[in-house]
């Protein structure tokens, strides 16, 4: 409406009061011209209102009084809207059940609404808030971003989140395939039912063979052991 009134060269009547009355011809002509323009400005505004609001605001005497009344009403509503957006900003928290990128876009929309309402925020603060709102499973990556000395803008952070999420998705798929392959190998592995003998049993078996040897040693010519086991060599 303000833009429309500006194109009609009537926006100045939203701030100007009626000129002082006078008896001269020039004063009377100026007052008549002002009243005519103010009447047009006021009725252009009333024509833009909803029908239910027309009777509420039509008793206003001048365009300035009408504009101030509307401005007061909608500024109060804007203040309530700002508090609502601030509440959404403070309460927003990312969860593990949704993708981080989609939640980052939702958070960017809240930041955009805050900017549109005149609540500007430094980009460094925006980056820090988004890092803090990452889901619990991203705790290690959150700490990694916090310890980075080089500052990054919001766009660079989104790129890092996209790369990290793609890597996590790929690792998750590879992990599932690896576990399935291991399970397949275990199921298909042939069973070995052969009995394994310990070293002690093997030594006992060799000792029994030694005790059963009836020949003589070629080195000392004594019975009961072989030349390779002779202690006199």
From TrEMBL:
<protein>
    <recommendedName>
        <fullName>CCHC-type domain-containing protein</fullName>
    </recommendedName>
</protein>
<dbReference type="InterPro" id="IPR001878">
    <property type="entry name" value="Znf_CCHC"/>
</dbReference>
<dbReference type="GO" id="GO:0003676">
    <property type="term" value="F:nucleic acid binding"/>
</dbReference>
<feature type="compositionally biased region" description="Basic and acidic residues">
    <location>
        <begin position="184"/>
        <end position="206"/>
    </location>
</feature>
<feature type="domain" description="CCHC-type">
    <location>
        <begin position="216"/>
        <end position="232"/>
    </location>
</feature>
<feature type="region of interest" description="Disordered">
    <location>
        <begin position="170"/>
        <end position="233"/>
    </location>
</feature>
<keyword id="KW-0479">Metal-binding</keyword>
<dbReference type="GO" id="GO:0008270">
    <property type="term" value="F:zinc ion binding"/>
</dbReference>
<dbReference type="InterPro" id="IPR036875">
    <property type="entry name" value="Znf_CCHC_sf"/>
</dbReference>
<dbReference type="Pfam" id="PF00098">
    <property type="entry name" value="zf-CCHC"/>
</dbReference>
<keyword id="KW-0862">Zinc</keyword>
<dbReference type="Pfam" id="PF14223">
    <property type="entry name" value="Retrotran_gag_2"/>
</dbReference>
<keyword id="KW-0863">Zinc-finger</keyword>
């Amino acid at each position: 409406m303000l833009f429309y009134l500006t194109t009609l060269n009537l926006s100045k009547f939203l701030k100007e009061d009626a000129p002082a009355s006078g008896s001269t011809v020039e004063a009377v002509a100026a007052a008549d011209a002002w009243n005519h323009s103010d009447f047009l400005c006021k009725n252009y505004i009333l024509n833009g209102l909803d029908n239910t609001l027309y009777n509420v605001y039509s008793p206003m005497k001048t365009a300035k009084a009408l504009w101030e009344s509307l401005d007061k009403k909608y500024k109060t509503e804007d203040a309530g809207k700002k508090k609502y957006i601030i509440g959404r900003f403070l309460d927003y928290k990312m969860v593990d059940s949704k993708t981080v990128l989609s939640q980052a876009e939702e958070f960017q929309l809240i930041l955009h609404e805050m900017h549109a309402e005149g609540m500007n925020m430094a980009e460094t603060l925006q980056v820090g808030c988004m890092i803090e709102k990452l889901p619990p499973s991203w705790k290690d990556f959150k700490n990694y971003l916090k310890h980075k000395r080089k500052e990054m803008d919001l766009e660079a952070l989104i790129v890092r989140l996209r790369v990290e999420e793609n890597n996590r998705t790929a690792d998750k798929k590879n992990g599932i395939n690896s576990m399935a392959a291991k399970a397949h190998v275990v199921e298909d592995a042939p069973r070995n039912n052969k009995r394994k003998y310990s070293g002690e049993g093997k030594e006992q078996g060799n000792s029994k063979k030694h005790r059963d040897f009836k020949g003589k040693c070629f080195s000392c010519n004594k019975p009961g052991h072989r030349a390779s086991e002779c202690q006199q060599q």
